[in-house]
Every structure is written in structure tokens, then in C-alpha cells.
Amino acid sequence: MSTPVARPAGAVPYAVVVPSIGRPSLDRLLETLVAQADGPDSPGPAEVVVADDRRLPPPGATAPVPDPLDLGGAGRALGARVVRTGGRGPAAARNAGWRSTTAPWVVLLDDDVELPAGWARHLAHDLAAATPRTGGVQGRLHVPLPTDRRPTDWERGTAGLERAAWATADMAYRRAALEQVGGFDERFPRAYREDADLALRVREAGWELARGTRTTTHPVRPADDAVSLRVQAGTRDDATFRALHGPRWRERAETGRGRLAWHVATVAAAAVGVGGLLARRPRVAALGALAWAGLTAQFLGRRLTPGPRPGDDAFRPELRRMAWTSAAIPFAAVRHRVVGTLAARRGLEPWPPPLAAVLLDRDGTLVHDVPYTGDPAAVRPVDGARAVLDDLRARGVRLGVVSNQSGIGRGLLTRAQVAAVNARVEELLGPFDTWQVCPHAPDDGCACRKPGPGLVLAAAADLGVEPWRCAVVGDIGADVGAALAAGATPVLVPTPLARPEEVAAAPVVAADLAGAVRALDGRLPGAATPTDADPDAADTPDASRTGERAA
């Protein structure tokens, strides 16, 4: 890997985190980031992490695994790393990204922005000007619009980012603030409201947010005719936001008012018209139809009036798009809001929610590591493991095992031998609620092998719990990396196989299993059992590493 862009002495260190689904615009962003290093007052990033959020097939599926993202020459010049997150959305991707870094500041960028000349110099000024209570500094966004015609509805919507508060297209957060609030709430699965929710929680935690001097260019990315219909799914997130922050959430989060009331009226008018037809009441049906037509026409006019004029090349396609989407949007928006409201009524706990499951590595964590063993007689539990696991079971915590077993893929073990060893582990340590084993060799390119997220995601799905309600306890950096990529909470209980840099970078380090449980105790149900765990085990800034034992 190439050496990252040089940073002058005394500059405030920062990491850059970019969630991506592999859009070509990522290359342009990285190129403009490399180009920032034009002098001593334009410090480059200490770390660059790209969170590859393309979907991965589930373990055991025959679908091909996407090739790793190629970050090209710009990525190599920056020393960029890739963390695979499996398609869980931008909130989860950003969490995995910033938790995989160590710098005191994290600059979050979207993969479709471009950094103009001087951006790094202004960023350095923004970070240097931050007070000890400044938790975040927002960059200004510039959206270039056509100069030869009026902008389309999609172009105007993108330009609205220029007025958005705390948008993570370019937002720098102090690591301490992110750690205090638990990062992004991964219950926001879309690129919508997750940044406003984070900003609100950071301010509620006592931090201040500021607007900086740097400017970032956000081009209007290509979109199909149905994009305005798809984005109505964001009304589900509005329901989540309201459930978390109360009825005045828009005012507190500095967001716009929206048009939901008008959409409800439009849908109600349509329902009256249909109801009149079914009841054979023609006047009622006509009134409903007229009201629906009037409201739809008013909505269409609001969207068309600021846009391209007749005679512009863009007018006819825009008219076609606006006509059918203006009729469909009210129904989509209301449906999404109802679904989101019903889901939120089940109750939403503050982020981060309590843990429901603890997933453990097998070799080196639960039992002493004997490389590539298929002999059940060689199984020796680590000291105190049974007592710790029984305590967790008594507290209602679900337990699982996530284990790389590449001896199968290498031809050194059979699946039956691994199953026999696993059965012996259960015989000695008690039952586990799920077993997830990766049988692949390192070069197989599977979706499950740690430090990828596959095993952790599969275990969470098998247990019926969300990944963010799981903790992962392991003994090397691959276990930490898998947890971070999946959105779980990692705890490292290192053995001699763990590299020193893995231990130094792990978010939580414990001396033994009992210490690992004690480190998690604030988020686990029930009361902890007193243990002899190392009292000096402590949190450190988190950064996953991708080292892994031979298995």
C-alpha cells in the first residue's frame, strides 16, 4: 500500500470516511482528494476508509461475490482501505468506516462529491478553529445547475442540499462526540434523516456544531424517471424521527416542513371518489374525483412552474415525468408514512439499544487454539468459559459462535470433523443458539470469512436480532474487523496470535472472557456476576485490522 499523502507537523489529524456502492463518481472524489496536497497549509488525511456497501450474497448462496472495490491510483496514493459492510445502508457504512479509524476528527464525505482546490486548506482552518466543545463542523455545499435553462425537479431537489443543516455530504465530527452518542442510528436505512438525527443527538449530548469555511461541490448525479417516487420512502424515516424525538422534531432538527398533509388530503379525496362509486352515489364520487384532480393538478403545477420552459429540450421529458409521478407520489408518501408509523409504535429505544446476543470466536476465545484440529479430544475450554457463558444464559442473552474454518477449504479437514469438534465444544460449554462456520480458504472470495461481515450478519439473522444488538468477542483483529463491518460491538481478548497493532487499535480490550462481559455490561440485561477480570482493561480508540490466524 502506498504511503498516505504527507501531513505537516502540527496539523490537526483527520480521517476521511466515504460510504460507497461503487459509483464511478468515487474515483473522481479520490482524485480531487489527492489533488489537495498542494502545500504545507493543505494537510492530507491521516487515514482514508471507503465503506463498500454493495450487497453481499448470504453465506452458502451460489450468487457471485462482487469483486473488491478497486480504488485506483488515487486510492493507492492516499493509502486508502476498504471495509465491506454488506449493503446495510449509509448509516451502517459510515459507522463501520469511522470506527475503523483512529484520528481525533472524522470527515464524512459522500462518494458523489468533488473537492475543489483549497478544500484541505479551509478544512485545516475549520478544525483548528474548533473549540473544545465543538463536536462537528459542516462544509458548505455547492450544487452546479444548468445555466442555459431552468433546473428540473430532480436538479432543484439536489440543490436543496445547499440549505441542509449538518448534511454528511461533507461533515467533520470529533471522534469523542461520535463515541459518546454511539455514532449513526442504523435504524435509518436510507440516506435520509440519519445525518439530522446524529446532529441532534450530538447537540443534546452537550456539543456544539459549527458551519465551516470550506466548500464542496456536489454535482447532480444521473437519475431515472422514477427517482422522485422512490425517495418517498423517506417518509418512513420521518416517522422514526418523530418517534425518537417528539412532535417538534422538525424544528429541533432544522428540517423543512414537507408536504405530507397535502398528500393525505389527495389520497382522502381519491378514497371519497372510489367510495362514492362503490356506494353508487355519483355526486359523492364526482366531488371526490374533482377534489383529487384539483389537488393533483396543483401539485403538478408547483413542480413544473420553476422548471424548464416550453421550447427547452428538457421540457417534454420533464412534463412526462412530472405528470405521472405527481399522481403517484401522494399514495406512495402516505403508504410509507403509515408503515413507518406502525413500525415506530412498537417502541424505539434510544440509540445505541441494549445488546441481545453475544457472538464468540471459537479457537482462541472459547477453547485453546489447536490449528486445523478435527479431533474432539483436543478440545480444551479456556479457563472460566463455562461459568461466563452460563451467567449470560441466565441473564437471557442469546449466544452464538462465528468461526473461520479454512481447514475445510484447504482440504485439511472435513465438515464432519469440524461438526464433531463443535459438538464437543457444546458438550463442555453448554448449548449455543447459533453456529456460523466459514469453510472457505482465504483466496476463495467468499462473503462470510472474517474480517468480512458475513458470519456476524448470518448469526444475527438466525437469532432474529439486529446486528447492532450483537457483540462479538474474539482474539485477533479479524474478529474485530468482522464486528465493525457488521455493525456489532467488538471486544478483543487477545492471545499471542494477535498482533500488537491489533491490540492497540481495538475499541475494547479485555484480559479474559469475564472481562469482556464486564466491558459490555452496561448494555447487557441483568446484573453482572463478579469476576476476576483484569481491572485495567480499558477502551481505546477503535480501528479494525484485517489480520487473521492461519485457519
Give the tags:
seven-stranded mixed sheet; globular; 13% strand; 551 residues; single chain; 20 helices; disordered C terminus; alpha/beta; five-stranded parallel sheet
Structure explained in plain terms:
The chain is α/β, with parallel strands linked by helices and 551 residues long. 40% of the residues lie in helices and 13% in strands. It has helices at residues 25-34, 72-78, 90-99, 119-128, 153-159, 175-181, 194-204, 227-230, 234-245, 249-253, 260-278, 282-304, 315-344, 385-394, 406-409, 415-429, 454-463, 477-486, 500-505, 513-520, and strands at 14-20, 47-52, 81-84, 105-109, 134-142, 170-174, 208-217, 357-360, 398-404, 434-438, 470-474, 489-492. The strands form two sheets. The protein has a seven-stranded mixed beta sheet. A five-stranded parallel beta sheet has the order 10-9-8-11-12, sandwiched between helices. Strand 8 (357-360), helix 14 (385-394) and strand 9 form a beta-alpha-beta unit. Helix 1 (25-34) crosses helix 2, helix 9 packs parallel to helix 13 (315-344) and helix 11 (260-278) packs antiparallel against helix 12 (282-304). Mean pLDDT is 91; it is low at 529-551.
